Amino acid sequence: MLINLLQSLADGYPLDWSDALAQILSVAFVMLCILPLHEFAHGWVAYKLGDPTAKNAGRLTMNPLKSLDPLGAAAMLLVGFGWAKPVPVDPRYFKNPKRGMALTALAGPLSNLLAAFIGAFVVMRMALTEMNAVTLFIFQALYYYVMVNISLAVFNLVPIPPLDGSRIVAMFLSDRALAAYYRNQQAWSFVLMILLVSGKLSGPLSMIQGAISSGIFSLARLPFRLLGVL
């Protein structure tokens, strides 16, 4: 994102301002509309499983002002992924706390993948039309929107606290192992930051993102192929 764009400028590469603006607008849209959807999905599933905490806190909403986290928003603009204020969840309301927390956690990344699929479907539909400068710009922005959503889903599924993946993994741990897992949460979070800053996660995450994006675009293309128009 902005870091990559600034690095390109610093290295003397010419910058495609239209493409850069498409990236920035797509990230801004995700930040204002999809991150709230991600958190809403967590709260809605928790509510359906018996936990009214998010509802009582007024967090079952798509209002971005309720979810916006300044540091997470800055990270979104700088590196293309970030976070919102997490919705409050109380696992004591769940009949099966581990399973309830895992399903609640999974809802967030799934909402990103659903949003990515809808965007990919529109991209496939636009690919069938003749484009001018305006529609080409929208096409670019939609493509980046899809990729940012996939990036968020994959990143959140990394099994390191406090990411959603840690709560999914927790469902398969014994109570003793789970206690040790969360007792060292700060250490795990530090490890996560080191991996991000060092770029050690970039390769594996990029491979997973590439595989998922191929699957999503193939699935979005399927209806058009069945109709013989793509």
Question: What does this molecule look like?
Answer:
This protein is mainly α and 230 residues long. The chain has one domain. Helices cover 73% and strands 0% of the residues. It is built from eleven helices and no strands. The protein has helices at residues 2-10, 17-48, 53-56, 64-67, 70-79, 97-126, 133-156, 164-170, 175-183, 185-198, 202-226. Helix 2 (17-48) runs antiparallel to helix 6 (97-126) and helix 7 (133-156) crosses helix 11. The longest helix has 32 residues, at 17-48. The two termini are 31 Å apart. The model has no long low-confidence stretch (mean pLDDT 89).
Tell me briefly what this model is:
The protein is 73% helix and 0% strand. The chain has one domain (2-226).
By secondary-structure content and strand pairing, the structural class works out as mainly alpha
- Given the C-alpha coordinates, what overall shape results? globular
Terminal CA distance = 31 Å
Rg from Cα = 19 Å
- Main β-sheet: number of strands, strand sense, barrel status? none
